[in-house]
Write a structure and sequence with these properties.
alpha/beta, Rossmann fold, 2 domains, 11 strands, 27% helix
Length: 224
């Protein structure tokens, strides 16, 4: 894939390195001359330009990229870049960094954002995920919160332990997308049975999160 990253600071460069390792073509854009450091990511293309200006994005060939990542330290710039990428250049997928949690509500499809990544929220979620069993943890949101990626480590006492994936009656529009067991991720095959301490990853709308938690937790806790 061809990926354009707006913001060539530490975050943007780190993302670029990871994507290059995975075989993607990367263009880094920044308007600050001090941020243009081709030697730091020599495999990437670099462009000194304002990622919030249509003329700059035309020069960057944004209409030919598969993903646009807004990774600057300015939420306003990230929103504008995402909106232009989606509406003016038809980029199939946009990912935007949220610097201040109070601004998170704006990062939705109306601003052209497919996936919003809030570092403070993600760090809190990972801390909670590391220390809790039986609690549903929201990892991040797609399209401004209409669908979330949530996680639960299945308690040993859950009535769903031993149940086949095909026999799960998940509430609403919740979808089981992965099972992590003994540190290895696996697809939720229909005949696979859930085990205690499985880490389950779901896609679910916010309205399904509480019913999903009740469905998975031990009966006594669910009743309480």
């Amino acid at each position: 894939m061809r990926v354009v990253i707006a913001g060539a600071g530490n975050v943007g460069r780190s993302i670029a390195r990871e994507l290059i390792i995975n075989g993607h073509e990367i263009l880094l854009i920044d308007r600050d001359p001090n941020a243009i450091k081709p030697e730091s990511v020599p495999e990437a293309e670099w462009l000194l330009a304002d990622a919030c200006e249509v003329s700059s994005l035309e020069e960057a060939g944004l209409d030919s990229c598969d993903v646009a990542i807004a990774a600057t330290g300015d939420d306003k710039a990230n929103l504008v870049h995402s909106l232009l990428a989606k509406t003016e250049f038809g980029v199939p997928r946009t990912v935007a960094r949220v610097n201040h949690p109070s601004n998170e509500w704006m990062f939705d499809e109306q601003w052209g954002v497919d996936v919003a990544v809030s570092t403070p929220r993600l760090m809190c979620a990972l801390v909670e995920e590391a220390v809790t069993v039986g609690d549903l943890v929201r990892l991040f949101s797609f399209r401004g919160g209409s669908t979330n990626l949530v996680e639960m480590t299945l308690p040993e006492g859950s009535p769903r332990v031993g149940i086949r994936v095909a026999d799960l009656n998940l509430p609403g529009d919740a979808v089981l997308v992965a099972i992590i067991r003994d540190g290895a991720a696996r697809a939720p095959e229909r005949d696979a049975a859930l085990e205690g301490d499985d880490e389950l990853l779901f896609l679910a709308p916010p309205s399904c999160e509480a019913p999903l938690a009740r469905y998975l937790m031990p009966r006594a806790e669910a009743i309480a």
